[in-house]
Amino acid sequence: RKRYDEVPGYMQLFWHESYGKALMMSNRKREAIPVFEKGLAFARKEEDKHREQDISRQLMECYLHEGRIAEARALHPHYEAISAAVAADAKIRELALANIHYETEKKEQRNVLLATELALSKNANRFNIFCAVAVILLLLMFAGWLLARQRALRLKNEIAGKESEIAAKEAAISRERLSEKEKQLRRLIANRKELSDRNEELLRQLAK
Length: 208
Known about the structure:
Radius of gyration: 65 Å
Mean pLDDT: 84
Oligomer: single chain
Largest sheet: none
């Protein structure tokens, strides 16, 4: 079994506070006074302001019930001071919570802004990529059109060259054929003249 002084202070504080409240509920306030006094000492030692305030209030109530006015008056300034300290702590906690809430909201707003900027940046990147792809496609189409036009012009020139070559060959053939016909005609005319001369000579001979 542990000795009494080996029990942790916060456990002794809890025990004295609970036992003192039980005595008060049983209307045994005279017996509760020493219990609360020890509990108050433990509350100061453990620096538990809330329990120190609560025990001080109940201890003053016991003093007043038992007619111990001087002790109640002596305890009252301490009760006011600890109550002010508790209120100040509560105000500080309230301000800290409000500040945390404000910082949280500010952080959330910053995150929303960052998310919005990121989304806009992604959209801008997508738009830039789309524009780049569109420009590349237009350049490819223009390059394809230029190649097709050059091929068409080259093919047209080749066809024109072939046509000129064929026309030249046909003209040469026509000239050759015409020259040959002219030669044949000349020979025919010469033959007919020779035949006509022979006929005339024959007719002269017959006329003699």
